[in-house]
Amino acid sequence: MQNPQGSRDFARIVGFPQASLSLGSVFPGEPMAPRPLPLSHMLLALAVVAVWGTNFVVIRAGLDHLPPLLFATLRFALAFFPAVFFLKRPPVPVKQLAAFGLLIGAGQFGLLYSAIDGHITPGLASLVVQTQVFFTILLSVRFTGERVQPAQWLALLMAAAGVGVIAAFTDGSATPLGLLMILGAAASWSGGNLVAARGGKVNMLAYVVWASGFAILPLFLLSLAVEGWPAIRDGVVNASLGTWGAVAWQSVGNTMFGYGAWSWLLARHPAATVTPSALLVPVFGIGSSVLLLGESLPFWKIAACGLVIGGLAVNLLAPRLVRAVRP
To answer: Which of 63-67, 72-76, 162-166, 270-274 is least confident?
Structure first.
């Protein structure tokens, strides 16, 4: 049976992307009142999605010296310290923060960093991880009793076709393992969405900061087991100033600025007004990888981008258009 409050909480929580899209249209009962953003607020939203999109290139730069799981460990350590001393713990059970930290830390980012470390290009990673939207829809059907709308099935098929194109026409941009790891990261992220939705109306910046503490030890233990102490030691010793800048950017840019600014916008505008700008995240991700890393952009990759981003757009916008034209 459908839980209206759970639906509202879930629709709200996925308005806080982590380098990705939000889902304003998963729950058709969610009230919408779109209004244009003031220019300054629109520029702030664009700055946020630009930071989230280009961050995939920053991750690739950090991996030049740091093993991926160690890099992820340091990311969450800096997201936790020292911000935890300035943000009050959100009023949710500790086990919920722990579950979110494990799913997003060891699951999403552990797999994401490992995949970008030679198994998939940053541009394609920024695109394929957007499938978290559709994993979230399917999980919400299973755990909250929501019904998938016809437009969402179309969106899911479009995105799946885009992933299929990537798998069929790879030119070295992605290995099968890399593609599977990114899909695993997307699935872990969707699980984190559902966990966070149970928290109700909380300060999401504080939620992410406090949950980050539960990702540190599991990621470090995984790094120790998989990458080994010599690789950890050599990575820290040989890391350049630019590498440490990439680590710091994961906390300052993505967490503090990204979550802080996005939360500020959503506190002042309906989600239906803010969230469409998040469709530009993979555009910034692919564009920055092409421009800064020389990632190739053949026709098949453009077609895959069109299918995945088109599917995201259909999922986000189609239900709103239907409601707008209804008498």
So the answer is: 270-274
Q: Quick one: CA dihedral 126, 279, 137, 79, positive or negative?
A: positive
Higher-confidence residue: 225 or 17? 225
* C-alpha closest to that of 293 among 140, 173, 194: 173
Q: Which residues lie closer than 8 Å to 319 by C-beta, 6 or more apart?
A: 25, 28, 149, 151
If you average pLDDT over every residue of the chain, what do you get?
83
According to the model, what pLDDT value does residue 66 have? Answer: 96
Contact 198, 99 (CB under 8 A): no
| H helices, E strands: number in the chain | 16, 0
By the 10 Å C-beta count (0-12 exposed, 13-18 middle, 19+ buried), 40 is classed as exposed
Against a cut of 0.90, is the pTM above it? no
pLDDT at residue 62 is higher than 90: yes
Token code pair at residue 267:
């506190």
Q: Locate the DSSP E strands across the chain.
A: none
Query: Do residues 219 and 76 touch, judged by C-beta distance below 8 A?
Result: yes
Chain centroid offset of residue 203 CA: 18
Angle between helices 68-80 and 229-238 (to 10 degrees): 60
Name which of 116, 48, 85, 99 is nearest 256 in CA terms: 48
Q: For residue 309, which amino acid is it?
A: I
Neighbours of 164 (CB within 10 A): 12
Residue pair 52/19 in contact by the 8 Å Cβ criterion: yes
Residues 6+ apart with CB under 8 A from 204: 13, 16, 196, 259, 263
In three-state secondary structure terms, 174 is strand
Question: 227 versus 140: which is more confidently predicted?
Answer: 227
The helix/strand/coil state of 91 is coil
Summarised one tens digit per residue, pLDDT across range 290-302 is: 999 999 888 999 9
Report yes or no: 65 and 240 within 8 Å, Cβ to Cβ.
yes
